[in-house]
Amino acid sequence: MEKEITLGDKTFTPFISKEKIDKQISRVASEINRDYQGKKPLLVGILNGSILFFSDLLKKIDIECEVAFLRVSSYKGTETSGNVKKVLGLDKEIENSDVIIVEDIVDTGITLENILEDLSSNNPKSLKVATLLFKPKAYTKNYPIDYVGFEVGNEFLVGFGLDYNEIGRNLDELYIIKEQTMLNIILFGPPGAGKGTQSELIQEKFNLTHLSTGDMFRFHMKNDTELGKKAKEYMEAGNLVPDQLVIDMIDNKLSESHDTGGFIFDGFPRTPDQATALDELLAKKGWEIAKMVSLEVEEDELVKRLLLRGKDSGRKDDSDESIIRNRMAVYNKETAPLKDFYANQGKHIGVDGIGSIEEINGRINEAIS
Ligand code: AMP
User: Fold this and answer.
1) pLDDT, tens digit, for every residue of 71-115?
2) Topology of domain 183-368, per CATH?
3) pLDDT tens figures, 311-333
4) 168, 315, 317, 347: which could join 158 in a potential S-S bond, CB 3.0 to 4.6 Å?
5) What are the residues facing 175 on neighbouring strands?
6) What separation in Å is there between the alpha carbon of 218 and the centre of ligand 1?
7) Could you confirm whether domain 5-177 is CATH 3.40.50.2020?
C-alpha cells in the first residue's frame, strides 16, 4: 500500500488494502447470490459514498438484479452531523421488490434509520442492508445489518468512496485518520520505581491521560467486578494478570478516551505479547508510541520504598517482602526484556530514577521533549 496521504488539513495512513477489500466484497456478493437464488433483488446504492463498493459488488452478483440510487447527506467534516436530509428520492417503484440497501459505512445508524423508514413505507417485499464498513461501537440502532464487509472501530476513514470534506472518494483503498497531536509515552520500570508519582506530574505538563493498569485492576477489585474477581488472586501473589484481560481492558479505555493529547502507559505493557498488542491497538487508530522512558532504580532501594509505601497504602502486595521479591523476579523475567523491544524501534530511553521527585521529573521531561 501507498504511504501516508494528506487531504486538506488532515493526514491519513493506509488502513485496508485493495486486495483485502476485494476479498470481502467477493464474500458479501457470494452471500447475496446464495440468499437471493430465484429472486431478482433491487440493489439501492446510497450516494455518494457507496459508488465504488456498489460497482464492485454489482460486478460480482451473478443472479438477475436491478439497480437504483438514493442520495442523502449526513457528514460535514469528520463528525456525523446528526441530521440526515434526503436529497434525491428513489426513481423506481419498490413495492413487492426484494430491496438490498447498499451503504459504504454504517456508523451511528441515523442515516440508515431514515432510509429504512422511508423505504419500508413503500411496502417492499423484503428489505436488507449490505455495507462495506460497519462501526459496531458507534451503532445506536437495532436494525440488523445483514451483509458486512468489515467491522471497524470509531476512527474516521477515507477512500474507496468515503470522503473527507468531499475529497478522497477516488482512493482505491481505505485510509485512517492520523491524530498527529497524540503523544503516547510508556513510563517503564520495576515496581516502586516511581512511575505513578511521575505519571501524575507529566500528565499535567503534556496534557496526557494517565493509564495505570495496576490502578485499574485495584479499582475493579475494590468494586468487586467480574474483572476484579479474576485479577485478585494474581495480584495478591504478585503475579501478572493474564495478557488478554489486560489487553481488553486497555482496548476499552483507549476507545472511551476522547479529547486527550495522548496517553501515559504506566505498568503496561508488561510482556512481549502486551507490547505487540499495544502497537496493534494504537496502529488501528493511526497512533503509535513516541517513547518508552525507563526509570532505573536498584532492587534493594525498590524493596525499601515498597515496604514503606505498603505501610500507608495497605496494599497487600506492598506489605510482604516475599511478594515484593516475587514481583521483582516477574519483572526481571517477563517485563525487563521489553526495553529491547522498544530499543529496536529506537524508542527506549533510560532515566536515572534516584533523587528527589523534582529532579527525576526534570530528567523525564527532558527525555520526552
Ligand atoms: P502495579 O500497580 O503496576 O504494580 O500492578 C499491581 C499488580 O497488578 C501487578 O503485580 C499485576 O498483578 C497486576 N497488573 C498490573 N498491570 C499489569 C499488566 N500490564 N499485566 C499483567 N498484570 C498487571
Assistant:
1) 886 544 555 445 555 556 787 889 999 999 999 999 989 889 989
2) Rossmann fold (3.40.50)
3) 988 888 999 999 999 999 999 99
4) 168
5) 14, 158
6) 9
7) yes
